Fold:
Amino acid sequence: MDLTFLGAAGAVTGSCYLFRAGGQNVLLEFGQIQGSRRDEQANLDPLPLPVKDIDVVVLSHAHIDHSGRLPLLVKQGYRGPIYTHHATRALCEIMLRDSAYIHEKDTEWENKRRQRKGLRPIEPLYTRDDAERAVEQFVGIGYGERCEICPNASIRLQDAGHILGAAIVELWLSENGVERKVVFSGDLGYRAAPIMEDPTPVEHADLVLMESTYGDRLHRSFDDTLVELGEVFADAQRYKGNVLIPAFAVGRTQDLLYLLDEHFDEWNLSGWRVFLDSPMAIQANEVYAQFRHLYGAKVFRERSDRPQLSNFAATRTSEESMALNRIESGAIIIAGSGMCTGGRILHHLKHNLWRSQCHVVIVGYQPHGTLGRRLVDGVEYVRLWQHTIKVNATVHTIGGLSAHADQQGLLDWYGAFADRPPVCLVHGEPKAQRALATELENRYTADVSLPRLGETRQL
Structure:
């Protein structure tokens, strides 16, 4: 039995791990690598085995950095099952289709450029047809059900508290009468999140793969985060500007809509108009409403996918989205993408970043190489569609709204393991991983390693 780290080793995107046991090949995740154009070229790197030799795929949750290359796998010939939670299957039907559309449009623009230079056209990473076929291969299961996924391998999903359907994956592997249990944290949520339940503690494992996104920091207290958000809206109202919130369509958007309703009077939001300018987030709301039994918060109206928020409007069409650019004051615009790497938020940044009265609220992790990260780091100018734009807007980073556990949350989750199993830290940048490794070693005398990309470990 062995494990090969094929993604998210010393990085936070492209999650992918290959297990071999008893003649079976189990692929855990096949996420898209996100960041700079150069980083994304690695999405086409081949796997270390033929696609036809993969027996089964397991997916922890719907975010594209975990699921985003599954249509490529199907395009390359994979015909087996993809096991995941029922809600994740429903979300991936939306998210993978959207991802495919973006790949198709980006390739269309690139091929126009290549045609002018006399270069051969290229193919998109995958198409919407590939995404549809991939979702057809999904097999939905619930939390807490142990399920045999192939000979010598079974799984059980537990609630990770990250986004709807997000799972901790318990994976049992056997070979020659020997069984090993690997626990993959997936992306862990933080305790007392606005909507999702707390991550489920797990007591036993032979090896833990644990995310480390925020392994080097503590989030602000949630009470402080709420005060900070209220101050942002008060400042924006005082200076008569708009508030732009680049938000992930799944998870962060629903948290924001819930909080805006819960603190409507406290934040004096009656004079604002709240626009959800993301077709994918609007569809994700429908899934969150469908699976409302998985969380306790009242986000939506009874038997409806419309948020409780009274001054809410969903802008579905391009024309409705473009009309928002004529609003100079009083608009809270929630739009994708959450890392400012594409989508409608770029148009709103183009029309607002140069305004000193504008406020940009960053509410999620921004990897190196993304426009969101450059804004967080204080860049003075950005380029959008060959236009250079001065960043006069005030940029706020609200770390307390992250859907990821902070260092303390990660330590607490590991602390539930009774046998203090060895830990491989994944899904984190090196600085965060080193800090978390030190804390795990000091607090629990844990055996911690930081695997390299392509490294194979015997189980």
